[in-house]
Amino acid sequence: MKISENTIEHLKLVITGDSEFTPYLSGPNLVKLFNRYGYNLTYGQGFPSRHIFAEDRLREMNDTDQLKPLIEEILDVRNFIGQEDKLDSAINHVNSFLRFDGYKLKKNGEFYKVYDDTGSLVEAETIETLSHEFVNEQIGKCNDKITSGDYNGAITNARSLTEAVFIELVEELTGKEMNYKGDLTQLYKSVKKELKLNIDKDQMPDSIIQILSGLNSIVNGLAGVSNIYGDRHATKLKPSKHHAKLAVNCAISICDFVIDSKEYQSNKEK
């Protein structure tokens, strides 16, 4: 999702709560908000003004998968309980700018979701069928970026693929739409719960426990490396080719494993 500089200028005030439409967020609470979307920031001496902080983060998140859920969280109906009229005003205000970027907030069930100008929901990744074929297709795109030297992009794609597979899997198994906040580690915990992958020392041999523990490390590492090297945020470091290949290969391993596990669970229940 990509928005204009003009929209960023007004949206930052909606996020900080310095517009008349949304609750006020202090500096520490702004840090907590953005940390839910892949940052690892702290509040302390030298912290910029709240406006500058929010504006800088919005520019970094612009044209990434994280901007949509951020906007939806700020305008979550639960932030306006007892002040529903204020929510209506906030939605209308934000939409007055989003429409020039080709987007609109619309009611979807209990919540407001971002739609594009064709009336379709804006999603980070659309999965019609969760399968190894889908994973291989997306990995092909990652490898194309590695070949072209876009190592940041390959790392970002690897994380986005992992997120998409995890979200689709949990939604399929629970029958409920996820409100994903960008925390890949927490998302994997949901996957493990639904697939019954949590470590049971009484039922599992040590070798399997070691492998499952390794998968936890892979997910944590993939989340960390995408925050450092990926192109979803402004990056200070340039990854090497072997770092990008490592991230992509880790994504292959974890996505293939959870899909296999889902298929095994499904066949077992038949």
Short description:
By secondary structure, the protein is mainly α. The chain contains 10 helices and 2 strands; from the N terminus they run H-H-H-H-H-E-E-H-H-H-H-H.
Structural commentary:
This protein is mainly alpha-helical. It folds into two domains: 5-116, no CATH class; 132-269, Four Helix Bundle (Hemerythrin (Met), subunit A), CATH 1.20.120. Helix content is 61%, strand content 4%. The chain contains ten helices and two strands; from the N terminus they run H-H-H-H-H-E-E-H-H-H-H-H. It has a two-stranded antiparallel ribbon with strand order 1-2. A hairpin with a 2-residue loop joins strand 1 and strand 2 (111-116). The chain is globular and about 60 Å long.
> What string, H for helix and E for strand, traces the elements in order?
HHHHHEEHHHHH
Largest sheet: 2 strands, antiparallel
Distance between the termini: 41 Å
Please give the count of helices.
10
Q: What proportion of the residues form beta strands (DSSP E)?
A: under 5%
Mean pLDDT: 84
In the CATH hierarchy, the architecture of the largest domain is Up-down Bundle
Spatial arrangement of strands, main beta sheet: 1-2
CATH level-3 fold name of the largest domain: Four Helix Bundle (Hemerythrin (Met), subunit A)
Structural class, by secondary structure, is: mainly alpha
Pfam family, one: Abi_C
Protein name: Abortive infection protein-like C-terminal domain-containing protein
Organism: Phaeodactylibacter xiamenensis
Write the topology of this structure.
Layout: H1 5-16, H2 27-35, H3 50-61, H4 67-74, H5 84-101, E1 103-108, E2 111-116, H6 132-147, H7 151-174, H8 184-195, H9 206-229, H10 241-269
Antiparallel strand pairs: 1-2
